[in-house]
Amino acid sequence: MVQMPRLRGRLIANQPLAELTWFRVGGPAQVLFMPEDEPDLSYFLMHLPPEIPVTVIGLGSNLIVRDGGVPGVAVRLGRGFGDITAEEGSRIRAGAAVPDVKVARAAQEAAVAGLSFLRGIPGAIGGALRMNGGAYGGETKDVLVTARGVDRGGRIRTFTKADMQYTYRHCGAPEDVIFTEALFQGMSGDPAAIAAAMDKITESREATQPIKSRTGGSTFKNPPGHKAWQLIDAAGCRGLTVGAAQVSVLHCNFLINQGGASAVDIESLGETVRARVRETSGVDLEWEIKRIGVDRS
Ligand SMILES: Cc1cc2nc3c(=O)[nH]c(=O)nc-3n(C[C@H](O)[C@H](O)[C@H](O)COP(=O)(O)OP(=O)(O)OC[C@H]3O[C@@H](n4cnc5c(N)ncnc54)[C@H](O)[C@@H]3O)c2cc1C
Questions:
Q1: Which residues form the catalytic set?
Q2: What is the pLDDT of residue 144?
Q3: I need a surface site. Which of 41, 119, 213, 296 has the fewest CB within 10 A?
Q4: How far is the CA of 141 from the centre of ligand 1 (A)?
Q5: pTM of structure
Q6: Atom of ligand 1 nearest to the CA of 58
Q7: Rounded Cα gap, residues 271 and 248, in angstroms
Q8: Which residues are near ligand 1 (CB < 6 Å)?
Q9: What per-residue confidence (pLDDT) applies to 132?
Q10: CA–CA distance, 54 with 74 (Å, rounded to integer)
Q11: Residue-wise over 228-255: b if at least 16 C-beta within 10 A, else e?
Q12: Contacts of 131 (CB under 8 A, 6+ apart)
């Protein structure tokens, strides 16, 4: 029997995950763990039998949770990972549970330029680190100094930007690492100018993306030399539906749960789009959205 007498975080059995994601689909986590802080996460992972799978979720803005749920433990970071501080030399330190938008705002208030691209990404810092989140010409890799994380064995590790082996929407740091904190480097700027840049990002998003829908953002990565949305449009997929899942009419690289879609509807719609794009243009689209868990048996 596993005993963890010094565990301080919360464990919940059969926690529905749909409500923790933007798409609002999918089954439960066998167990959801919300660690109190980094030492608590480390203690838990150190004592959890290695055969039990662990999956980390952030704000669920880039996730499809499959209908059969997530076996093993899903980890979600909360308040103990929510600190944010401005440091000497135009640096911002943020816990992995801090929403990207808050980091953008804290940087603006501290007269730190270079982080305003985070304004438009609706995830938290852990997701930005794992996805190399980016928008409007900025990417996480451009501003990262170091990231901290805990591996599956409970070891606390620090990663330099080079260790993260970043490419477009991809991080090469070991898959088992749960990031806990990031240190970002910006540059000295004018708070009013930074605020204006952030407002522009907000306006542009509202005009071009279905940001009030149940979606996962860009579904597929832009293949080299192409825009995914153009290939999808050329394949005649704008507005296509499977069940209650639809290819957004506003931005056809976004899939939408119109209400009552299942994860399998959304994933099948994505696979249909991939097949049609392959037929019409010969390009193999790669999923940007992460799909976790198992299908309903
Ligand atoms: C309307 C909309 C617009 C979007 N626009 C953009 C955009 O402009 N640019 C962009 O890059 N993305 C965009 N996205 C996608 C998404 O917001 C980003 O990928 C974001 O970084 C995901 O963060 P999250 O906290 O929601 O992570 P989740 O969706 O919960 O998880 C995404 C991945 O990160 C991993 N992960 C999460 N937290 C951690 C952690 N602490 N340690 C290790 N791994 C972790 C998860 O296991 C999963 O593999 C958009 C999404 C939506 C819904």
A1: 169, 218, 288
A2: 98
A3: 296
A4: 14
A5: 0.98
A6: 30
A7: 15
A8: 22, 56-63, 77, 96, 120-124, 126-128, 130-131, 133-135, 178-179, 209, 211, 215-217, 290
A9: 98
A10: 6
A11: bbebbeebebbebebebbbbbeebbbbb
A12: 62, 123, 140, 169, 170, 171, 288
